[in-house]
């Protein structure tokens, strides 16, 4: 103890040296571990570099040109894919007066197109815009969406008219403004949605009509080949409530018109289709006679027995739920939407 007191500075220095030596050893061990980890990482990076260099596709001038050509091909593909989808027109200058004019013109054109195609419409059919026709003022913010839905419905109806369905029973579209009656049968329960990934608007619609299987096939083909992107979600097909139509037996004293025993004419009378366009579809004129005179019979005619079914065809009641996919328009749009472009104006 006395020796420590006499050599106090020496003892303190020795203790400090031992502590510093321990710290140095600890630091050295940690540095060696870090160096080993860095060496391992460097080795792995070198191996990856060697793999990239030894690959057949190397970033030389030729391969860079190939990549640029591939990018151009992808851009062309994207442009072609976008062309399959409609665009959402921006109608900042659309007001109540221009929308009312567009609405009345579109409804008139659709009604005329249905008449020319022989498609029966419900009485005083407004194509789901009855409320908007009665209202004097519509919300300004709702006008672009109303015009968009009007154009979509015009395109859907034109597909049905081109397919020459027998009757259009109803249409349904999404609600737009808070003033739309929620209990009305003109609206679907599903709302329009926007895909956040591609920025596409998905607008649901529903259409119900009557036709035969041939017209139904034409409708589906029309949706497939239409310029708009239609996604058919569900198809509900039911048999109509029509009854069998017996063949008409000619009565010499009744003075039945020519063609009264024609089963096609019986079908026309059954549905009350006195429209010239509808009659001409089945080769009949509005008066009930055959449009083209049948060739003279070479032998005695075999009359149909009374009560025997000559034609057993029933219409199909079809309800289709579909969605229209539209992309945001990057170009500067026109002041009025392109709804009337889908409505034929030829007479």
Structure notes:
The structure is a single chain. The chain is α+β, with helices and mostly antiparallel strands. Among the domains are: 86-242 and 317-342, Alpha-Beta Plaits (2-Layer Sandwich), CATH 3.30.70; 243-289 and 309-313, no CATH class. The protein contains nine helices and eight strands. It has helices at residues 2-6, 8-54, 61-83, 96-117, 130-134, 143-163, 213-225, 263-271, 276-281; strands spanning 86-88, 167-172, 193-195, 200-211, 229-239, 245-246, 309-311, 316-328. The strands form two sheets. Strands 1, 2, 3, 4, 5 and 8 form a six-stranded mixed beta sheet that branches. A two-stranded antiparallel sheet has the order 6-7. Helix 6 (143-163) crosses helix 7 (213-225). The longest helix is centred in the N-terminal third of the chain and has 47 residues, at 8-54. The relative contact order is 0.14.
Task: Name the assembly state.
Answer: single chain
Tell me the radius of gyration: 39 Å
Structural shape: elongated
CATH T-level topology of the domain at 86-242 and 317-342:
Alpha-Beta Plaits
What's the CATH superfamily of the domain at 86-242 and 317-342, by name?
A: Ribosomal protein S6/Translation elongation factor EF1B
Number of strands: 8
């Amino acid at each position: 103890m006395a020796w420590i007191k006499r050599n106090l500075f020496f003892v303190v220095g020795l203790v400090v040296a031992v502590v510093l030596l321990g710290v140095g050893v600890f630091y050295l061990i940690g540095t060696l571990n870090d160096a080993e980890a860095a060496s391992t990482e460097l080795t792995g990076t070198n191996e990856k570099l060697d793999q990239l260099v030894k690959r057949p596709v190397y970033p030389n001038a030729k391969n860079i040109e190939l990549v640029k050509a591939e990018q151009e091909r992808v851009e062309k593909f994207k442009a072609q894919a976008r062309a399959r989808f409609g665009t959402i027109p921006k109608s900042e200058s659309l007001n109540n007066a221009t929308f009312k004019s567009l609405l009345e013109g579109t409804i008139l054109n659709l009604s005329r197109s249905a008449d020319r195609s022989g498609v029966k419409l419900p009485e005083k059919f407004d194509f789901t815009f009855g409320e908007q026709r009665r209202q004097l003022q519509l919300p300004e913010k709702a006008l672009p969406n109303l015009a968009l839905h009007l154009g979509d419905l015009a395109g859907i109806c034109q597909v049905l008219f081109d397919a020459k369905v027998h009757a259009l029973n109803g249409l349904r579209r999404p609600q737009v403004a808070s003033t739309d009656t929620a209990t009305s049968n003109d609206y679907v329960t599903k709302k329009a949605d926007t895909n956040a990934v591609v920025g596409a608007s998905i607008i649901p619609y529903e259409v119900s009509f009557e036709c035969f299987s041939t017209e139904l096939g034409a409708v589906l083909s029309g949706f497939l080949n239409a310029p708009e992107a239609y996604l058919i979600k569900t198809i509900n097909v039911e048999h109509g409530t029509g009854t069998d139509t017996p063949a008409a037996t000619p009565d010499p004293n009744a003075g039945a018109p020519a063609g009264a025993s024609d089963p096609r004419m019986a079908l026309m009378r059954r549905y009350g289709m006195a429209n010239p366009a509808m009659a001409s579809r089945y080769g009949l004129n509005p008066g009930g006679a055959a449009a083209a005179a049948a060739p003279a019979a070479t032998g005695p005619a075999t009359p149909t027995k009374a009560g025997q079914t000559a034609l057993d065809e029933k219409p199909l009641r079809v309800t289709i739920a579909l969605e229209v996919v539209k992309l945001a328009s990057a170009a500067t749009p026109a002041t009025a939407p392109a709804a009337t472009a889908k409505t034929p104006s030829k007479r």
